[in-house]
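I am going through a labmate's work and have reached the protein record below. What it holds is a sequence and that sequence's fold in token form. Please read both lines and tell me whether the tokens look consistent with the sequence. Do not assume that whoever made the record got everything right. Thanks in advance; the entry in question is below.
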Amino acid sequence: MRVSLFQAGFGTVTTVALAAAVSNAGGMGSLGSLNVRNAKERVSALRAATKGPFFVNIVLQHYPTDPPDILPICLEAGAPIIQFSWGIPSKQTVAMIRAANARFGLQVGARAALDAGADFLI
């Protein structure tokens, strides 16, 4: 990937406007704290607001299912990149991302992310 500036997920304070501004300025915008009720709307709105790269931040500890129930919603809405924190996604989760021709990354502090096949590290 050729982007060196990544916006943090920022939890509940992240907005579509902020993520679009970061992406449109040449960085990697981010949407965090999505849920099954708002994910499609927010990802679609960000896709419409920028031609630049962005990712959806999924905190694995917040989702009891594997793959997380929010993942297919984000991928169907066109999220080009999924970024995980607080855990390592399962092979099934990674396969779902790859099948959607999306990329993924991990927010980690260990080599395990590269071994899992992450495209980038935070």
